[in-house]
Specification:
CATH superfamily: Lipoprotein localisation LolA/LolB/LppX
Protein name: DUF1329 domain-containing protein
Largest sheet: 14 strands, antiparallel
Radius of gyration: 21 Å
Number of helices: 6
CATH topology: outer membrane lipoprotein receptor (LolB), chain A
Region (Disordered): 40-62
Structural class: mainly beta
Pfam families: DUF1329 (PF07044)
Organism: Duganella flavida
Shape: globular
Oligomer: single chain
Helix content: 10-25%
Keywords: Signal
Strand content: 25-35%
């Protein structure tokens, strides 16, 4: 970690521990977004060893959708090396504690194939412009659901973060397009290694926070999703709608259960509550590594570090069968791509008076995209119990990268949940150019579309 970011981390710790509202960046700091920092706040320069390249901001060709399948821009590359249980000590400082634990749990089959690093993160110029405005205007304020951004819109809220909570909000409000659609299968891997398809779902997603030119209409709802379950047969017709708000006490979710033929508002779509979308295997705040309420935790920047993380994972779209992605009790290592990148390391520790099944957590946020790519969750005894992860992919038409494959390894029970299989579908994750109607994300529409 270079001296500049050591100072940032130290300053953040002092300010946050004092309980003060986070200060905005100074104009001098914000000016770095056009010089030494990228428009999103990462370091433009590569590392001194040359194993992390400089950021250029150039588009990455080859990730377009052709015949219903998204391409892999780095399909011809070969791994530089592989990290296994046998040589883990050699790369220990670059591997997260969570994936060290997975490698030790499955020493004969789990490995990390490491490829050349590519900094593919880009966004439209208007998103960069809004990010620059946010740098000097946005701040964290106390809401009913915890600290929330104020004065931010249409870009990364805190490109020069001064607290762990700001980093977490950069992930929640990361650029991933305005509107998108996808059709995926999701699997549970049982403790004895069986892969069970527990959901085939269609998603429509919208981020009102990124509606271009509509800052005056933004009322705090930053992410909307509607999910329709198409399989297996026992779950056909289930549906979920979620509307996340900056003040998370105002976030709402509804579920339609065909057996009851009615829409129910979920009483607590938050935190360590199991989510119906994953058949209860994942909690709400484990979706995409972290989603939802920040207020149950104190967030602290540990620092910035070079680590091996899942990245540019378009290769996993290549297999024609879901089963080609199956490994023994984990994803097939052949289908994953690992690269060396700089990440923000952030700890989230349960606040006094709050309750959660994972009172201690460590998150790893990619510096270029603000995607949370890995985490470790610890129980009350301090034991590492769960390892969330996500795989960012290049999405050409959206000028973005997004997590289309994500999951959770349960180190205690031995089961795994993984979402985002497109291999037997011809409807890949895609950016929708015309925004969805807001009414699509309402319980009335869900009730009208109910089946069975």
């Amino acid at each position: 970690m270079n001296l500049t970011y050591q100072r940032i981390a130290a300053t953040a710790a002092l300010v946050f521990s004092a309980g003060s509202a986070m200060a905005t960046a100074t104009p001098e700091e914000a000016a770095q977004l056009k010089t030494t920092l990228t428009p999103f706040g990462s370091e433009r320069a590569g590392n001194k060893e040359g194993t992390i390249p400089a950021w250029t901001g150039a588009p990455t060709p080859g990730a377009d959708i052709v015949n219903g399948r998204r391409g892999d821009p780095f399909a011809n590359e070969k791994p530089l090396y592989s990290v296994t249980a046998k040589n883990l000590d050699q790369y220990a400082d670059k591997v997260s504690e969570g994936f060290k634990a997975i490698m030790k749990k499955y020493p004969a089959s789990f490995r990390m194939d490491v490829y050349p690093s590519h900094r593919t993160a880009i966004a439209p110029q208007w998103v960069y412009d809004n990010t620059a405005k946010n740098a000097v205007n946005a701040k964290l304020v106390e809401g009913a659901g915890g600290q929330m951004p104020e004065g931010a819109y249409g870009g990364i809220p805190f490109p020069i973060p001064k607290s762990g909570a700001e980093v977490a909000w950069n992930h929640l409000l990361r650029w991933r397009g305005v509107s998108s659609s996808n059709h995926v299968r999701n699997y549970q891997v049982t403790a004895d290694g069986q892969w069970l398809m527990i959901g085939e779902s269609h998603f429509d997603i919208q981020m009102p926070y990124y509606m271009q030119g509509e800052a005056d209409k933004f009322k705090g709802e930053y992410w909307m999703v509607t999910t329709k379950t198409l399989g297996p047969a026992i779950r056909v017709g289930e549906a979920i709608i979620g509307r996340l708000t900056l003040d998370d006490d105002k976030s709402q979710s509804w579920v339609y259960l065909p057996g009851q033929r009615r829409v129910r508002k979920l009483p607590n779509p938050c935190c360590d509550t199991p989510t119906p979308f994953t058949a209860g295997i994942s909690t709400f705040d484990e979706i995409n590594v972290f989603t939802g309420r920040t207020g149950r935790f104190d967030w602290k920047i540990v620092g910035k570090k070079e680590m091996l993380i899942p990245y540019n994972g378009n290769r996993y779209f290549t297999p024609l069968k879901d089963s080609d992605m199956f490994g023994p009790k984990h994803l097939n290592p052949d289908s994953l791509r690992w690269e060396l990148h700089r990440v923000w390391v952030v700890d989230a520790t349960l606040r006094n008076g709050q309750r959660h099944t994972s009172p201690k957590n460590r998150y790893y946020f990619d510096e270029d995209t603000w995607n949370a790519v890995m985490a470790e969750r610890y129980d009350a005894s301090g034991a590492l119990t769960r390892v969330p992860f996500a795989v960012p992919v290049v999405i050409t038409e959206g000028q973005t990268t997004e997590q289309t494959l994500w999951g959770i390894y349960d180190l205690v029970g031995g089961s795994t949940f993984i979402a985002g299989f497109y291999n037997e579908r011809t409807t890949p994750y895609k950016i929708v150019q015309k925004p969805w109607k807001e009414s699509l994300f309402t319980p009335d529409v869900m009730a009208g579309e109910g089946v069975r």
